[in-house]
Amino acid sequence: MAGPVLAFVLMLAMVACDGASPAAPTATPTATPTPVGSAVPQPSPPPGPGFDPATTRVELEKVASGFSRPLYLTAPPDGSGRLFVVEQTGKVRVIQDGVILAAPFADLASVVTSEGSEQGLLGLAFHPKYAENGRFFVAYTAANGGDNTLAEYRVSADPNRADANSRKVLLAIPDFAANHNGGMVAFGPDGYLYLSTGDGGQAGDPRGNGQNRDALLGKILRLDVDGAAPYAIPAGNPFALGGGRPEIWAYGLRNAWRFSFDRQTGDLWIADVGQNVYEEVDFEPAGGKGGVNYGWSVMEGAHCYRPSSNCDQTGLALPVAEYRHNEGCSVTGGYVYRGAKEPKLAGAYFFTDYCGGVIWALTRAADGSWTRTPVLSSRLSISSFGEDQAGEVYVVSQEDGTIYRLKAR
Ligand SMILES: [Ca+2]
């Protein structure tokens, strides 16, 4: 119990120490206009007939418990029906037919550091062709001092055990603070691998990484893991031909701890953890060209941060939803529900706050306006959501080590 509580104290301490930032922020001027291919959210298909903000509420059904500081859940696209749970200290556990297998699928404890409250094994993504190639990808803070690391592994001959000797490090980004390490890794509908990185940490983006397109921190990266080793740059990446690091897909992010793709539309939803006041959800419609600047640290949410007034918002994409810290401390992004078991949830984006525990549904009306509806006061410390292969949505509760399934009430 002390771990998560301490984690919060530390997280809040980090958030509150802005005045102690050792380095002056270096605003990095951008010489050329940002290719804001999709800075203004375009209407996607409206929320399905399923979710009704006026009447639909949710409840949680316990799936399995006994995990140690779980941070994520996903499933391989192999028809096995298994759920894979990421534990912060380095293990990946398997739930098969409702039972947690005794032996972990993978144990990365020797290669990750989880000393800091935001460090550890942070993300996991199975290759879209996992059933054929057995490849999967993990994001973690490395034991060498916290490099924000993306590595690839393969499954062994036993489908419930990874090959511990198969590790290949694709990317290791040096980091200067224990907090803000991103760590979401997911394949997009384009087959490319997306990875979030934090701004490095401390508070207030002391090194100006969010707006620095020559830095890999404070970004979402897009990589082709089916081309040249260790990865190739997708030809359509916004800075593939110059203007910044070619790996960058999106920038101006503080710590996009969780993002997801709508499995039906391909829309990208980004939950970016805020500084002192505002938590935000960003939205990039499917088909965007990337290169969107989500504003940090010029802005926190939809508000000027540096400078605190009259900041230059030219070319910045504002969040589609935000809330103040009177409702929480750290946004936990989720998923648009596209499963089959809960037709009443169809089409809504579900997310929460780690401290507040209220699960919200975010929907867009026909006139383009967004509505954030509280659908459950969970009283949990929810570190993440997750999806199974069929699109059912799960809640990962860090403090009680339990996985729940999201249900309509
Ligand atoms: Ca960091």
* Oligomeric state of this protein: single chain
The mean pLDDT is 90
Beta-strand percentage range: 35-45%
Briefly note the CATH topology name.
Neuraminidase
* N-to-C series of helices and strands: HEEEEEEEHEEEEEEEEEEEEEEEEEEEEE
For the termini, the CA-CA separation is: 29 Å
Overall CATH class: Mainly Beta
Count of DSSP H/I helices:
2
Low-confidence stretches: 1-43
The residue fraction in helices comes out at under 10%
Q: Which small-molecule ligands are present, each listed once? A: calcium ion
Question: What can you tell me about this protein's structure?
Answer:
- The chain has 409 residues and is mainly beta.
- It has one domain (2-18, 43-408): 6 Propeller (Neuraminidase), CATH 2.120.10.30.
- Helix content is 5%, strand content 36%.
- The chain has helices at residues 2-16, 130-133; strands spanning 58-65, 70-74, 83-87, 91-96, 99-100, 106-107, 121-126, 135-141, 148-155, 162-173, 185-187, 193-196, 219-223, 248-251, 258-261, 268-272, 278-284, 292-293, 299-300, 303-304, 321-324, 331-336, 349-353, 358-364, 370-377, 382-387, 393-397, 402-408.
- The strands form seven sheets. Strands 2, 3, 4, 5 and 6 form a five-stranded antiparallel β-sheet that branches. A five-stranded mixed β-sheet has the order 11-12-13-14-18, with no helix packed on it.
- The relative contact order is 0.17.
- Mean pLDDT is 90; it is low at 1-43.
- Bound molecules: calcium ion (CA).
- Calcium ion is lined by residues 175, 177-181, 198, 200-201.
- Calcium ion binds at residues 175, 177-181, 198, 200-201.
